[in-house]
Amino acid sequence: MKILIIEDDLSFQEILRRTLEQERYIVEVAPDYRTGLFKLSDYTYDCILLDINLPDGNGLNLLRELKEMKKTGSLIIISARDSIEDKVEGLDLGADDYLAKPFHLAELLSRIKSVMRRNNHGGEQYVSYGNVKVNPHTFDIWVGDTKQELSRKEFDLLLYFIQRPNRLVSKSMLAEAIWGDHFDDVDNYDFIYAQIKNLRKRLTAWNASIEIASVYGMGYKLIEN
Amino acid sequence: MKILIIEDDLSFQEILRRTLEQERYIVEVAPDYRTGLFKLSDYTYDCILLDINLPDGNGLNLLRELKEMKKTGSLIIISARDSIEDKVEGLDLGADDYLAKPFHLAELLSRIKSVMRRNNHGGEQYVSYGNVKVNPHTFDIWVGDTKQELSRKEFDLLLYFIQRPNRLVSKSMLAEAIWGDHFDDVDNYDFIYAQIKNLRKRLTAWNASIEIASVYGMGYKLIEN
DNA sequence: TGAATGGTATGAAGATTCTCATTATCGAAG
DNA sequence: CTTCGATAATGAGAATCTTCATACCATTCA
User: Fold this and answer.
1) Which end of chain B is more exposed for a tag (fewer CB within 10 A), N or C?
2) What is the pLDDT of residues B40-51, one digit of tens each?
């Protein structure tokens, strides 16, 4: 589940990010209107948290643009002022929910869940890139029309990449996200090399249209070929 | 790290509990003065979150009793009213910090960390029961005077038990805490049986004074023998 | 262009973890 | 006290994951 936070108060943004990441969401952040729009033109997020008060424009405009772009995904408005007009206008423009600051983080989490549940009406949740399609919950993997299997670590790895297609992924990111606390700062990444090797072997064996490219000195990137 | 929450507002208590558990603390809760005192007489917690306004007495009294009991561990006062008197009195009575509602959860987390850091001045952090002593951070294990080693899962298992000595631990608790999401609701617990077996073999080989007892139909319990 | 350096890849060995089939144990019911 | 169904324990084997030694490749600098 990918969530985009558009919020200019950086410390609050940080709190949101950490909370959501603890809940295992994949989080991206944008500090302003422009960055938010840029990110949205590139990717589709499962949920967007949009602050109304942005330094470079009113968030409601962004909402209008999104509507034009016919982007799917849920959107929750966050607003410092608890104004009825904003709320009504926001919901009219297609927002799924409205939350006035300050709010409890637990409140936000439950809103996110309910909004996403509502929008999927219990449907399938797949993440895909190229001809590879992955269900984070059922662990199903489809390559073209054939179903495939992976071991746990290989699956985690593939999911992590496929949720960030075409992005640079460092080894320390992988270590922290997939191996956890004890591996987030080690002196060698042999265990990653080993799993990357295995996953690559699978992808080519499956004739997947995607591959894990190395970026020398930086990490890896999932690309379409 | 074990934390005790003494708080009568149950929904708020729940929010705290969930947040702290996400941060990997071991959390216990008490809804009132009496229960809190009872729990404190049994165990020593690394940190206590104490609400001042309790249905059956003022939390400051509990603080006085704790002082008499010479309990170690950090204590953070939580108060609905941001009253200077409470704050001063609480800190005088040995509380380590004071937090007025409402507060951001991230704020609480950072206070907890700083308070605990301050109180241990970077010292060793061991959890022990019987002649077994475990360091959750360095993964050191001491049985009497000899240092021992365990595999990762075995260590996690031992730590989980030793943090809850003499308490009933169900298999689903273990599955969720040690194996995570994917194993929290499965139809067989063979993987737990296997690890329990290995851990038991180690404990007896080490002449540990503790053992994992089975509780038929319920789970396990770490006892001293 | 050609070392030299450090990052990355690989197969195989080793360790750990899980699964399976089987056996043992418990507690309730007769 | 015995039997029976359910729960738990066990050893062995399979699958998975990590480590190791070695080979390969990209970049830099002479």
Assistant:
1) C
2) 876 778 889 988
